[in-house]
């Protein structure tokens, strides 16, 4: 989808039954069998349905591979090789093809053949063990963050491989997997364990190594405050009327504040609890330290800044009339980066792709449709 935002012609190859994510609802798009979950990650794509287990379906895949720059797949390792549409077959057809496989655990190792979902990788990679309240159970993130970060790693790898091909003329295979991405995303927690043997803990919204750096309950919600330096801590103390904390030996630097975490958090919590999120947002407007309220989605999209940066886009949709999506977050000085096409209906572009991209004549297309090779 990120490549599509940048202007790539993205063809989503689906089985005749379609992407399972189409069924991940409710809610579903009006007058449609497609879920809004599917909507969230499939803009700027065209859909073609192919029975790629059939010989004629494989030939369509071969023709697509011959003309395409990049192929992305997320099957269990070896599955597409069994169907004769894996990298070893396709690189013969198109030696310049960039082939990116995204799997749960990668193509080697004892877990290679295991299926993988976001939450499984998040569990096995340590994220769930360090997410949640200190005295609570492990907790998953609110969105499939391991899926998202793996996709972003794949995007970067594909762009790098395209640049490499531009320089050398050579295509290549890329392997991304959820577990490796999750473990690499554990950054400081993983590094501290590897070098110091200290296990990561659940801190709720707090930070293991910085204090104060967490959510504080206000009159009507929560404010998150983060101080990463002594000057920022001093600024916080001044703004909330607790200047005496600046010279208090217990809190004179971050190490001392970590050591005396409970006491400093208690003092700040008492103050933050006296006002609303709106009041604190105004009071902290010119603060040197980062801060902000914990927002519901309603609050997010009513925020004046979010409105000003025009992140929400409306796209025409054949069933719903229009649908709203969150547009790409990156702004380029030159070139395009935008949500242009609503997610496709199942097989919406099959005829168009066969005729205008692959150059099939009408009789051949009708034959493939009649035999249920495509739909």
Automatic annotation (TrEMBL):
Lineage top rank: taxon: Eukaryota
Keywords: Transferase
Any one Pfam family match given in the protein's UniProt record, by short name: CoA_transf_3
Gene3D superfamilies per record: Crotonobetainyl-coa:carnitine coa-transferase, domain 1, formyl-coa transferase, domain 3
GO CC terms, sorted: mitochondrion
GO molecular function: succinate-hydroxymethylglutarate CoA-transferase activity
Keyword Transferase: yes
Similarity annotation: Belongs to the CoA-transferase III family.
Protein name stated in the entry: Uncharacterized protein
Organism: Spodoptera exigua (Beet armyworm)
């Amino acid at each position: 989808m990120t490549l599509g935002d940048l202007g790539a012609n993205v063809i989503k190859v689906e089985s005749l039954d379609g992407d399972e994510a189409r069924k991940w609802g409710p809610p579903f798009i009006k007058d449609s069998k497609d879920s809004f979950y599917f909507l969230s990650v499939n803009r700027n794509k065209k859909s073609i349905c192919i029975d790629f287990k059939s010989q004629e379906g494989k030939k369509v895949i071969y023709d697509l591979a011959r003309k395409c720059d990049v192929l992305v797949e997320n099957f269990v390792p070896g599955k597409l090789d069994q169907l004769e549409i894996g990298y070893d077959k396709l690189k013969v057809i198109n030696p310049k093809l960039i082939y990116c496989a995204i799997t749960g655990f990668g193509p080697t190792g004892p877990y290679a053949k295991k299926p993988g979902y976001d939450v499984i990788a998040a569990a096995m990679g340590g994220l769930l063990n360090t997410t949640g309240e200190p005295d609570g159970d492990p907790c998953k993130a609110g969105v499939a963050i391991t899926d998202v970060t793996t996709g972003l790693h794949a995007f970067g790898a594909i762009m790098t491989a395209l640049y490499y091909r531009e320089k050398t003329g050579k295509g290549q295979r890329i392997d991304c997997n959820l577990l490796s991405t999750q473990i690499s995303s554990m950054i400081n927690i993983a590094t501290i364990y590897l070098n110091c043997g200290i296990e990561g803990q659940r801190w709720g919204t707090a930070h293991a190594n910085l204090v104060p750096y967490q959510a504080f309950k206000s009159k009507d919600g929560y404010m998150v405050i983060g101080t990463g330096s002594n000057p920022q801590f001093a600024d916080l103390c001044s703004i909330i009327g607790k200047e005496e904390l600046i010279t208090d030996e217990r809190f004179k630097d971050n190490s001392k504040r970590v050591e005396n975490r409970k006491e400093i958090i208690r003092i700040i919590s008492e103050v933050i609890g006296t006002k609303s999120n709106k009041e604190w947002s105004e009071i902290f407007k010119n603060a040197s330290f980062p801060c902000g309220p914990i927002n519901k989605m309603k609050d997010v999209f009513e925020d004046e800044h979010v409105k000003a940066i025009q992140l929400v886009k409306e796209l025409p949709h054949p069933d719903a009339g229009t649908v709203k999506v969150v547009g790409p977050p990156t702004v380029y000085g030159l070139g395009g980066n935008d949500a242009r096409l609503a997610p496709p209906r199942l097989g919406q572009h099959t005829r168009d792709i066969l005729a205008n991209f692959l150059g099939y004549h009408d009789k051949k297309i009708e034959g493939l449709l009649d035999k249920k090779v495509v739909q």
